[in-house]
From TrEMBL:
Coiled coil: none annotated. Transmembrane segments: none annotated. InterPro entries: AAA+_ATPase, ABC_transporter-like_ATP-bd, P-loop_NTPase. Residues 7-236 form the ABC transporter domain. SUPFAM superfamilies: P-loop containing nucleoside triphosphate hydrolases (SSF52540). The keyword ATP-binding applies. It comes from Stagnimonas aquatica. Keywords: ATP-binding, Nucleotide-binding, Transport. The lineage of its organism: Bacteria, Pseudomonadati, Pseudomonadota, Gammaproteobacteria, Nevskiales. It comes from the Bacteria. One of its GO terms (molecular function) is ATP hydrolysis activity. This is ATP-binding cassette domain-containing protein. CDD domains: ABC_DR_subfamily_A. Belongs to the ABC transporter superfamily.
Length: 312
């Protein structure tokens, strides 16, 4: 049966002794989506992915894949998933064909369908020319392509990719990202990364995790719209205390420079100009600045952003 929701995890939790690696994560992947799992090292991304793919038993919570409960029917549920772990499970002593044949068998592809499955996966991942090469002799970028090919060999509706560009050079990174974007036309994707530009380049929606918890779960456009404006102003003869009604915070940066935060509905620039002229503060510079997505990510994952957390 075709389901629109391909993955639904509720209250997913994993403890290691007294330490909580993942705490009560809810996650939904719909058909056609590329969901990014973003977080700093140790945030719990790999642990979450291992639980979603049935490679690690959760301490609590449930996972449904394509409508099938992973705990009740692991084999049935896993049929809908292809997984590329952080360490690609490729065997350096095998050729690309040998390894992909082995992966097809593991994924239960019938013997009579294997040649066609290999052909398709190799073509999709740009591996046809290296079919007979030993994996150990391929570049890291090509080894990663082999990792992607094994994840799609059984044509699963979902592929789950754990930090797929780590350790690659900038050209290989671009190639793998573009390959993922192509694969996403046929598969829904969950992709983890600790690099925001990676998620921005590839994903439609992002789930930011920090210390095992979700701190943001929205579209990237929404993340950008959370960019709170602030104002930078500099006076040559600054007042002893700068006060301005209607703003939420004024931070003195020294040498007559200030950073002013206000509610997005109130723009304090006109009032600042008027006061500066009236009081002879000598306005040198005044500009509006929005926080970059990078700054928002850093503030979310360093625990300052209770307001944004509410949106999660
Ligand atoms: N087998 C384990 N035993 C004990 N603690 C573990 C184990 N595996 C992971 N952890 C801990 O769980 C937390 C989450 O780890 P996880 O590997 O999921 O993070 P991550 O976001 O994938 O980070 P990275 O990008 O560094 O892999 C970390 O604090 C880690 O030390």
């Amino acid at each position: 049966m075709e389901h629109d929701i391909l993955i639904e995890a509720r209250g997913l939790t994993r403890r290691y002794g007294p330490n909580v690696a993942v705490e009560s994560i809810d996650l939904t992947l719909r058909r056609g989506e590329i969901l990014g799992l973003l977080g700093p090292n140790g945030a719990g991304k790999s642990t979450t992915m291992k639980m979603l793919t049935g490679n690690l038993a959760p301490t609590g919570g449930t996972v449904k894949i394509n409508g099938i409960d992973l705990a009740a029917d692991p084999k049935g549920a896993k049929r809908s998933i292809g997984y590329l772990p952080e360490q690609p499970p490729v065997h350096p002593e095998l050729t690309v064909d040998e390894y992909l044949g082995f992966a097809a068998a593991l994924h239960g592809v019938a013997k009579k369908d294997r040649a066609a499955a290999l052909q398709r996966a190799k073509q999709a991942c740009g591996l046809t020319e290296v079919s007979r090469r030993l994996i150990g002799n391929l570049s890291k970028g090509y080894q990663q392509r082999v990792g992607l090919a094994q994840a799609i060999i059984h044509r699963p509706p979902v592929i789950i990719l754990d930090e797929p560009t780590v350790g690659l050079d900038p050209i290989q990174i671009r190639e793998i990202r573009s390959l993922i974007a192509t694969l996403a036309k046929e598969h829904s994707v969950i992709l983890s990364s600790h690099i925001l530009p990676e998620i921005q380049a590839v994903c439609s929606r992002v789930l930011i995790v920090n210390r095992g918890r979700v701190v943001f779960h929205e579209s990237l456009a929404k993340l950008a719209s959370e960019a709170i404006p602030s104002y930078y102003v500099q006076f040559s003869r600054p007042p002893e205390h700068l006060e301005l009604p209607g703003v939420s915070a004024i931070s003195a940066l020294g040498e007559g420079r200030y950073r002013i935060e206000s509610d997005p509905s109130f723009d304090p620039r006109e009032a600042l100009v008027e006061r500066s002229v009236a009081n002879g503060w000598g306005l040198l510079e005044l500009r509006r600045q929005t926080r970059s997505l990078e700054e928002i990510f850093v503030s979310l994952t360093s625990g300052e952003a209770n307001e944004l957390r509410k949106a999660a």
